[in-house]
């Protein structure tokens, strides 16, 4: 497209079919068909060619900086635009309702695409968002029903509310790793959208972001921390939501696997956010007692039965329980140590400075018996759990024949190796 300069100020245009725009306030004929923006113009003012329904061609100058609010709204016969490279801002609704607009070549200098800038451009088929654009504002390309190809480039950080809602011909999108947020209804009702690639870097997916799309499977990057419960609502073809390895492995090893349903259960997204936000997999992995594992797994299994209004309170109760378990993990070892020292002191005669080895062993056995009686009611009181059968299973040390119980052994030594046990009396491996 050639960018010839218009006449000098005060001269009349030679061609009656061409309107030379000089940026000065004045009446513009609504039936204008060709517009040439003069070289001195830096800003096309708000509403300059609003509702010029006969307008078919625009020649922008290369020094243009801003296209104003509703500048070319409802120019129904306009079929293509070529935005110069120095234009930084396309204001809100600048080209909205240009029903015949099929191609829009956005210059590499664009930084802001305003709200509804290309809304209801039904014929627009292809759009390439320049890398300088950090935010696609709300409704920017909403109801572009003919849009089949969308290119999003590195540099983009936010896709705002309803940005591409009802782009019913759009089938595939690749969200670049620089994008941090996809807001509410960003791609809602894009009914043919079946292939979506989200990349690591994304942090938030808003309510109904992909409502009513044809997505069959989607992978959630590990960087995502917040996903609205209804982000994929009414996606009838969706059969699998794949989360990061940490979450997938955790689910497969807990009773959550019985209701998880490949990540598409209605409680999966809110549960995922809870697991990531409160680092639940790590906290569960650090539990020292099998009883505590069972209690937490039972709580996780009950998530589907919790009413939606109470779900976050229930998540908080799980996290609080884990925090309490973490604080109590050393209780058996500390009590055993206190009891042992106490029995040693009480068994010393006034004239004795130390006990023999056999006497110390007897004191150790006595302290262990005392701990068995004391710990269950203490832990029951502190945690609200039932510890009446706490000491099962009990196993006999092959070296000293002392009857160890699993809880005390793990409380003293933790899990040395999976499947290994250490006697609290003689420190021999089982």
Q: How far is it from the N-terminal to the C-terminal residue, by CA? A: 84 Å
Estimate the strand proportion. Answer: 5-15%
Spatial ordering of strands, largest sheet: 11-13-15-17-19
Contiguous uncertain segments of 5+ residues: 1-14, 411-419
Mean pLDDT over the residues:
84
Sheet having the most strands: 5 strands, parallel
Shape: elongated
Structural class by helix and strand composition: alpha/beta
Helix content: 25-40%
The total count of helices amounts to 9
Number of strands: 22
Rounded Rg: 35 Å
General description of the model:
The protein contains nine helices and 22 strands. α5 packs antiparallel against α6 and α7 (331-347) crosses α8 (357-383). The protein has a domain at 330-413. Helices cover 26% and strands 14% of the residues. It is an alpha/beta fold. The chain is elongated, with a radius of gyration of 35 Å. Strands 11-13-15-17-19 form a five-stranded parallel β-sheet. Strands 3-5-7-9 form a four-stranded parallel β-sheet, with no helix packed on it. The protein has a three-stranded parallel β-sheet with strand order 1-2-4, with no helix packed on it.
């Amino acid at each position: 497209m050639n960018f010839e300069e218009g006449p000098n100020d005060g001269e009349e245009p030679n061609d009656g079919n061409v309107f030379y725009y000089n940026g000065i306030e004045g009446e513009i004929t609504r039936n204008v068909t060709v517009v040439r923006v003069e070289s001195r113009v830096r800003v096309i003012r708000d509403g300059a060619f609003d509702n010029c329904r006969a307008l078919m061609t625009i020649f922008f100058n290369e020094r243009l900086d801003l296209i104003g609010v509703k500048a070319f709204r409802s120019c129904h016969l306009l079929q293509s635009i070529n935005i110069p490279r120095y234009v930084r801002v396309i204001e809100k609704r600048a080209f909205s309702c240009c029903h015949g607009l099929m191609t829009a070549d956005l210059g590499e200098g664009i930084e802001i695409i305003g709200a509804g800038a290309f809304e209801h451009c039904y014929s627009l088929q292809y759009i390439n968002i320049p890398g300088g654009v950090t935010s696609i504002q709300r409704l920017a390309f909403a109801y572009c029903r003919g849009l089949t190809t969308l290119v999003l480039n590195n540099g983009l950080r936010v896709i705002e509310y309803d940005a591409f809602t009802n782009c019913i011909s759009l089938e595939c999108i690749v969200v670049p790793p620089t994008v941090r947020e996809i807001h509410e209804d960003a791609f809602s009702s894009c009914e043919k959208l079946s292939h979506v690639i989200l990349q690591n870097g994304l942090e938030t997916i808003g309510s109904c972001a992909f409502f009513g799309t044809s997505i069959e499977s989607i992978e959630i990057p590990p960087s995502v921390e917040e996903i609205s419960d209804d982000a994929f609502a009414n996606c009838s073809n969706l059969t699998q939501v794949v989360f990061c390895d940490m979450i997938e492995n955790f689910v497969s090893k807990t009773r959550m696997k019985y209701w998880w349903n490949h990540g598409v259960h209605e409680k999966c997204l809110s549960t995922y956010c809870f697991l990531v936000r409160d680092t639940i997999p790590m906290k569960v992995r650090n539990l020292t007692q099998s009883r505590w594992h069972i209690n937490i797994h039972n709580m996780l299994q009950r998530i589907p039965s919790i009413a939606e209004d109470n779900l976050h309170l229930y998540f908080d109760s799980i996290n609080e329980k884990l925090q309490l378990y973490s604080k109590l993990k050393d209780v058996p070892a500390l009590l055993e140590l206190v009891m042992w020292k106490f029995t040693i002191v009480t068994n010393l005669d006034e004239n004795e400075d130390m006990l023999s080895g056999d006497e110390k062993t007897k004191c150790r056995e006595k302290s262990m018996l005392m701990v068995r009686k004391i710990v269950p009611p203490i832990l029951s009181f502190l945690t609200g759990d039932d510890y009446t059968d706490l000491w099962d299973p009990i196993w006999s040390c092959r070296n000293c024949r002392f009857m160890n119980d699993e809880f005390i052994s793990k409380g003293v030594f933790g899990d040395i190796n999976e499947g290994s046990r250490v006697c609290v009396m003689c420190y021999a491996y089982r």
